Every structure is written in C-alpha cells, then in structure tokens.
Please model this.
Amino acid sequence: MHHLPPGRWCKIFQTGSVLNYFMKLALPLIIFTIAFFLPSCTFNCADNFEFGIKYNPVRRKFGSPLIKHYMSAHNCCGAWTTYEIDNVPADNGAYHSSKTIRVITNGKVTNEEDLYRKQLNDTTILQLDIETALLWENDSLEIYAKFGKIDTRKLKIEPKDVIIDDSKYPRYEKMKLDRQQIDSVLRLWNLSRFEKE
Model:
C-alpha cells in the first residue's frame, strides 16, 4: 500500500496551506459547474416566469401586446424583465422588437412597454414605443405611444459616450399617439396588439 510521505500532509495542513490546496483542486470544479449549469438555470427561469409567456392570457384580456415564443428573456426574472427578438427580419418588414415588464404590484403586472420597429434604410428605423397600464380596479387598459424615426447608430452608443456622440446623429421629433392611432399604425404594418404568440 502506497503512503504519502509524512512531510506532504504536514505541508498541506500548515497555516494557509489547506486553503491553497482547496483552491487548486476544488475551485476549477466549482467554476466549471457554475459555467455549465447557469445557462440552463436562466432558461428555466424564463420558461417558468409567471409574468412571462404564461401571463399572455391576462395580456390578451386587457389588450396589451403578447410576448412571442421567439423572444428571449433578459434580466429575468422580475420587474424590468425584457423579452427581445434575437434576429431582425431580413425582409425589412415591421416587427415586434421587445416587451419590457416594468412594474409588478401586489403580484400583478401593472405597467409594460413594447417596441415595434420598421427598417427604413441602413441607418434609420421607424419606432412605435407603446406604454400600457393594466388598470386592475376596473379591468381596463390605458395605452399611448410615441412614434417616430430613430437613427440606428444612436442605439450602438456606449452609455459613457452618449453626451459626446449623441449630437453627431440626427434628432427626430416623436408624435404621441392614442389607442386608435396605435392600432392604425400596426394595421398598416400588418401587425396587431392581438396577434398570435
């Protein structure tokens, strides 16, 4: 039977050496485990998030746009969870870009934001930014939107560079739209607040 030399055990159990020994053997295993399992945990969270896709029947009842199955969750799970599409459609058609669950009150969603976009050219998109408030006291929806052009180069500016770089690109005025105007724009784009998931 093979035995480690006594000196080896003495060195391991000297002050501070146990920690070093642990770090060399166990730390890589811990890092690997976290890296391997974290993505699946995040995915399961988004799948099981009670205010995600599972909440779409409530959204349909109120008239708030639905989360689509092809959207991916970010900052999950709670208020400010955002569902976004992974790829912009290649045909330059209009699309539902994202939904952000902004406010959750007493176990109910009370405020959301949806972005719909249409590519105009290489640097410009039309954006319909819909704000919805789910009014639970009378089961109604308060809805309005801001509508206008956005220079796509502005979307790529790092937060630290906004003050300097923002002025380099055109600034467009946005119009405020009511419910009828929102639905009219969506119809022109062959979309709807009530479209299928």
Observations:
- Residues 53-188 form one domain.
- Strands lie at 71-74, 81-85, 95-105, 108-119, 124-135, 140-151, 175-177.
